[in-house]
Amino acid sequence: MAVATALFSCGQKQDSAATTEVSTDSLGGTMSSTDEKSQIIRNQIKAAMANDTTYKWDELAEDIAVLYPGDTIPDIKGKKAYLADFKANSSFWENPHFTFLRVVTLKMNNGETWTNVWGTYHAKGHYSGKDITTTIHQALKWENDKETQEIDFFDTKFVVDEMAAKEAAEKK
User: Fold this and answer.
1) pTM score, two decimals?
2) How many CB atoms lie within 10 A of CB 136?
3) What is the H or E stretch that residue 52 is in?
4) Are 67 and 75 in contact (CB under 8 A)?
């Protein structure tokens, strides 16, 4: 009986320590791929893949900031600039699609909410004629149900190359 009591007591202490650790883990939280925010991002991706320039983008904050790899200062600032960039980029690609895509929203114990996107993107450059295959990873921060920040963690060289091909085609 003393052994059973000791084992039960040890188990209680361990459970208590685990609960304390979880409650003090500010970066812990819940993860879901079926929540509303993940679905909103899937709808954005669907619009982007269809080059749908009529998509409303109601979920964007007026002061959304977009950071490209290696940057600490936003490359795009504001909803108007975001939409102008989207519209310009939609003309660059033919048959854009993902062969692998994950969209997951993290609700963290510190109150932050982020949706992460990663996948394998394919398209054909409209101006260069080049087939593009690249891995994409983005982190999207939410505040008050609006996207306030987009951080891109992928090589954007394929976009720069396509912009150069467009400029060259326009000079002809």
Assistant:
1) 0.82
2) 17
3) none
4) yes
6 C-beta neighbours (distance < 10 Å), count: 10
CA pair distance 145, 44, nearest whole angstrom: 15
* Three-class SS state of 38: helix
Report DSSP state, residue 75.
S
Residue 44 burial (10 A CB sphere; 0-12, 13-18, 19+): buried
The two counts, helices (H) then strands (E), for the chain are: 4, 7
Which residue's structure tokens are 């085609």?
Answer: 169
Task: Quick: pLDDT tens for 87-99.
Answer: 888 889 999 999 9
Length of the chain: 172
Q: Please count the other Cβ atoms lying within 10 Å of the Cβ belonging to residue 155.
A: 13
Contact 108, 27 (CB under 8 A): yes
Q: What is the largest CA-CA distance in the chain?
A: 91
Distance, CA of 100 to CA of 95 (rounded, Å) = 15
Query: How far apart, in Å, are the Cα atoms of 62 and each of 58, 59, 83, 144?
Result: 10, 9, 11, 12
DSSP state, residue 33: S
Rg of the chain's alpha carbons, rounded to an integer?
A: 22
How confident is the model over 45-72, as pLDDT tens digits? Answer: 999 999 887 899 999 999 999 999 887 8
